[in-house]
């Protein structure tokens, strides 16, 4: 029997209530805006209200003269000497494409509405905003590039003239006669252009930072709303020149991120640099308008898909032509997502061959950033296309999927793009989802409802595999320190950046399970570079697999040491001992045992009692390297009713069947899925970042940018298939999946309803206007 | 800028404050009263994160000037549970039902739901969803929140600080 088997499942796999909750429910959480330090000043930005212009004059004198204003900084004050601010994984030769040079504050040019031009620092936020009103900026206005299609061919007006083109990245298709031959001889070829519109993360807590440099100690301390404190620390160090060991980044409670807070944003960088420059503690809390126009945008893509299908509905091949809008300054090197879209496009299907061309362009809009499944266009495009193919060849979309989905006996399966899939269950989750939702019964009801009353009901499916915990560079590794204190209580230190995922709970479950202690005796410390090992933060659906793997291994190592010490104290053989509830005892004779607190006392305070060769202390630090990809999978299915008179969509039922391997906490797993589903529903039906032709953002408040409320999100029903991954705990990542499967499921359901009337939609968002236009066009 | 003297009762404690006319109630609660549980998610009255109870009504403290609250009885999220950290029935239901993730919108929801159940102790499912539709949550898809409201509405009252029966004349306990 291994050390882990006999307690398996006491904590891991249980829906244990979150230990984060009491403080968050009573208002005792500590978010960045709750940080108040002596002498703290407040910052506010002057931002460009033009999409593309040359700055001809900035007059800050009136602002500087305002009582209460401490400083007004412009590019000339702040930019010289700033170090490299690209993400650490892109340092050296690994510069990503596309990559535009981004100044701290805008210097000669502004390139999108919201581009920061000056920072005003004052005694209060009110006074800082008063100061911003007094800063005068004069511009020579230039024609902006807003439309991504036009950006490709535009040669006179460039977002980044120094780069010589608006094309940020171009992946051409190599000649592929085999592919051409498949298309030429296929029974069916279906071609469609699909548009996924611009929308974005919208964490309820905006971005924010409190930074202070203490010249006497040489220390830079940064409180930050972040998913990734160690990454922020590295960037702060390079940016300011303060050595890394003198920089501390603390992300205590973080009010959501969904990718937006994974890399250190440009605005936060400006505040950190300004704090060092003026030698004072400086706070900046982004307002909602700034968050909607200047943090990052996402999902702005157009993709043309061509699919070759045989007479029986088998997918033979696909061709993709992808256009991505990167905005002016893609955040944290994000952008150029095309190759990932192509790599993952085959998904969980036997698709024989794939060709793709991808183009990314700069536009005078807010930069693209990571948003929960940044490459998820592959699932959107494939799943929406499958429904279009099914309709074109007269087959039910479920039947088309059944004919092509990879089955258990075909694993491991190498996709057309060379990805090896294993330990996944797409066929099983497909069947479970359609069974829960009652697919056949709904089809019958749909037909009757339409024929008898003209009611437009629809059903949609989104099936996908998710490449979680992608182990490239620092993202593939996490380190955990598990320390039993002299009292026998346990502290776990992790380099994660929990921002809603309940990492303090799930990782405590892993420790309690594998160390054999009561969960109330475990505390997880994370989000602080001063007290945690280096780590890659929380994002990319990686914490359960990578941090969980390190935590598990470190817990087992400590357990082995505790057993070794206990064996010596009890004069028993280690293999005869069990560990449970913080007590090591002889199997079958529970009275013959020793408490963890006694073992810890010996380990720290009485080394003479230790067995020979055993070092004092009772802790372990273990680094875990995850495999390149840990695949998870899920199937989303939903039903909708479309009102033909108003164009309004009501989501009737929503089902998710998923396989994220061994669940650490099923309650948290379902919570993660639900949040992603709501974002998908919002993304397809309501949320839209709109620019006018001049590049002016029109959706700058929550009155215009519509986040779904409780009246728009239905009850979500879940099915679970648990297939172990080959990683230590058998877990798979799943944080992003809810937002990957939901957009095509919702879109397909609406399209299915509209097809009853012969109407067709190919672009999001599915607003009432677009739906009524589609119905009118029939 | 001219300051005005105001007197408010916050979570049962009387406070005399001097505030500029332009300062919002939310900022005064957070900064002058150091009660940082009240959060600001949009500062334009849509997201509901800053909801507090003023004279028995749930209001958005970002849309109210502090001077308008002169003489008012205010309850924030910090005033709902017991002084020893005991959760109120609403707070406890949110924990039981996983009605929060990042926790940023949570104080606004807890306050809104507390007042909702005072006004309508036995809401239907539709009334629950309608009743919380003025608050935005980006993490939960509202699943656990809706369940939590149902659970709290079914929780026994007398020993719970926030279920005192019908609201009194000031609407507070």
Secondary-structure topology with pairs:
The complex is a heterodimer of chains A (778) and B (173).
Chain A: H1 21-25, E1 41-47, E2 53-59, H2 61-65, E3 69-74, H3 75-78, E4 109-110, E5 116-122, H4 125-134, E6 136-141, H5 148-153, E7 167-171, H6 177-185, E8 188-196, E9 208-214, E10 219-224, H7 229-240, E11 247-250, H8 266-278, E12 282-285, H9 288-295, E13 301-309, E14 315-327, H10 338-344, E15 353-362, H11 377-393, H12 397-404, E16 413-414, E17 420-421, H13 426-437, H14 439-453, E18 456-468, E19 477-484, E20 490-494, H15 503-516, E21 522-526, H16 543-570, E22 577-580, E23 583-586, E24 589-595, H17 596-605, E25 619-625, E26 630-642, E27 649-659, H18 666-685, E28 716-720, H19 737-755, H20 768-776
Parallel strand pairs in A: 1-12, 10-11, 14-15, 20-21, 27-28
Antiparallel strand pairs in A: 1-5, 2-4, 2-6, 3-5, 7-15, 8-13, 9-10, 9-12, 13-14, 16-17, 18-26, 19-20, 19-25, 22-23, 23-24, 26-27
Chain B: E1 3-10, E2 13-20, H1 25-32, E3 51-54, E4 57-60, E5 73-75, H2 89-96, H3 106-119, H4 125-131, H5 143-154
Parallel strand pairs in B: 1-5
Antiparallel strand pairs in B: 1-2, 3-4, 3-5
Helix pairs in contact in B: 2-5
């Amino acid at each position: 029997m291994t050390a882990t088997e006999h307690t398996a499942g006491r904590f891991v796999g249980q829906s244990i209530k979150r230990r984060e909750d009491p403080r968050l429910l009573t208002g005792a959480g500590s978010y960045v805006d709750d940080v108040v330090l002596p002498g703290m000043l407040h910052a506010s930005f002057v931002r460009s209200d033009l999409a593309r212009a040359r700055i001809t004059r900035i007059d800050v004198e009136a602002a500087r003269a305002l009582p209460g204003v401490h400083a007004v900084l412009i590019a000339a004050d702040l930019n010289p000497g700033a170090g490299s601010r690209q993400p650490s994984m892109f340092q050296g030769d690994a510069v990503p494409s596309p990559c535009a040079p981004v100044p701290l504050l805008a210097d000669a040019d502004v390139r999108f509405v919201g581009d920061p031009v000056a920072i005003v620092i004052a005694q209060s936020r009110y006074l800082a905003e008063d100061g911003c009103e007094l800063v005068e900026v004069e511009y020579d206005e230039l024609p902006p590039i807003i439309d991504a299609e036009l950006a490709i061919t535009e040669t006179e007006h460039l977002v980044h003239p120094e780069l010589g083109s608006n094309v940020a990245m171009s992946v051409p298709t190599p000649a592929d006669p085999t592919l051409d031959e498949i298309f030429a001889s296929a029974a069916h070829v279906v071609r469609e252009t699909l548009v996924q519109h611009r929308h974005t993360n919208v964490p309820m807590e905006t971005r924010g930072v409190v930074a202070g440099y203490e010249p006497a100690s040489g220390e830079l301390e940064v409180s930050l709303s972040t998913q990734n404190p160690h990454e922020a620390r590295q960037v702060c160090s390079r940016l300011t020149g303060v050595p890394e060991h003198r920089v501390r980044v603390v992300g205590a409670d973080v009010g959501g991120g969904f990718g937006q807070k994974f890399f250190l944003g440009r605005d936060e960088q400006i505040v950190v640099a300004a704090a060092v420059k003026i030698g004072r503690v400086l706070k900046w809390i982004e307002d909602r308008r700034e968050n909607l126009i200047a943090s990052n945008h996402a999902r702005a893509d157009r993709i043309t898909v061509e699919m070759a299908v045989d007479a029986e509905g088998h997918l033979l091949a696909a061709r993709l032509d992808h256009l991505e809008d990167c905005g002016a300054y893609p955040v944290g090197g994000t952008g150029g997502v095309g190759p990932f879209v192509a790599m993952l496009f085959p998904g969980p299907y036997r698709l024989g061959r794939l060709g793709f061309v991808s183009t990314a362009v700069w536009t005078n809009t807010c930069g693209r950033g990571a948003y929960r499944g940044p490459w998820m266009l592959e699932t959107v495009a494939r799943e929406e296309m499958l429904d279009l193919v099914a309709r074109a060849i007269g087959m039910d979309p479920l039947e088309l999927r059944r004919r092509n989905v990879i089955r258990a006996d075909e694993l491991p399966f190498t996709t057309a793009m060379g990805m090896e899939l294993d330990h996944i269950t797409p066929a099983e989750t497909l069947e479970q989802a359609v069974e829960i939702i009652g697919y056949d019964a709904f089809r019958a009801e749909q037909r009757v409802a339409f024929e008898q009353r003209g009611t437009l009901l629809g059903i949609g499916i989104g099936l996908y595999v998710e490449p979680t915990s992608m182990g490239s560079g620092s993202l593939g590794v996490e380190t955990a320190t598990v320390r039993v204190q002299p009292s026998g209580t346990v502290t776990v230190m992790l380099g994660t950046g929990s921002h809603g995922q309940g990492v303090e709970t799930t990782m405590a479950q892993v420790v309690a399970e594998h160390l054999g202690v009561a969960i109330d005796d475990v505390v997880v410390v994370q989000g602080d570079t001063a007290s945690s090992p280096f780590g890659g933060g929380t994002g990319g659906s990686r914490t359960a697999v990578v941090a969980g793997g390190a935590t598990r291994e470190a817990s087992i190592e400590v357990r082995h040491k505790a057993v070794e010490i206990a064996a010596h104290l009890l004069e028993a053989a280690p293999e005869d001992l069990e560990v449970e509830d913080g007590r090591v005892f002889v199997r079958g004779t529970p009275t013959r045992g020793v408490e963890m607190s006694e073992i810890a006392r010996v380990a720290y305070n009485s080394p003479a009692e230790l067995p020979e060769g055993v070092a004092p202390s009772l802790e372990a630090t273990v680094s875990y390297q995850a495999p390149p990809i840990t695949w998870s999978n899920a199937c989303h299915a939903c039903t909708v009713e479309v009102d033909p008179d108003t164009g309004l969509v009501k989501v009737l039922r929503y089902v998710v069947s998923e396989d994220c391997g061994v669940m650490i906490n099923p309650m948290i797993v379902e919570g993660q899925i639900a949040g992603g589903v709501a974002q998908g529903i919002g993304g397809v039906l309501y949320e839209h970042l709109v620019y006018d032709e001049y590049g002016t953002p029109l959706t700058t408040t929550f009155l215009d940018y519509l986040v779904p409320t409780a009246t728009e999100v239905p009850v979500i029903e879940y099915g679970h298939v648990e297939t172990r991954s080959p990683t230590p705990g058998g877990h798979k990542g799943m944080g992003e999946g809810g937002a990957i499967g939901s957009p095509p499921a919702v879109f397909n359901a609406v399209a299915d309803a509209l097809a009853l009337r012969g109407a067709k939609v190919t672009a999001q968002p599915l607003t009432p206007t677009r739906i009524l236009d589609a119905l009118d066009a029939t | 800028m001219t300051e005005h003297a105001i007197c408010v009762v916050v979570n049962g404690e009387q406070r005399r404050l001097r505030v500029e006319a332009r300062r919002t109630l939310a900022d005064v609660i957070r900064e002058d009263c150091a009660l940082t549980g009240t959060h600001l998610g949009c500062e334009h009255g849509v997201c509901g994160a800053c909801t507090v109870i003023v004279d028995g009504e749930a209001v958005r403290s970002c849309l109210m000037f502090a001077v308008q609250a002169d003489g008012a009885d205010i309850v924030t999220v910090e005033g709902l549970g017991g002084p020893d950290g005991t959760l109120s029935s609403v707070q406890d239901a949110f924990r039981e039902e996983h009605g929060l993730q990042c926790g940023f919108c949570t104080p606004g929801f807890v306050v809104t739901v507390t007042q909702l159940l005072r006004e309508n102790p036995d809401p239907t499912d539709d009334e629950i969803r309608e009743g919380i539709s003025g608050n935005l949550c980006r993490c939960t898809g509202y699943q656990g929140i809706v369940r939590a409201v149902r659970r709290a509405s079914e929780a026994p009252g007398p020993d719970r600080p926030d279920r005192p029966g019908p609201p009194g004349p000031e609407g507070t306990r």
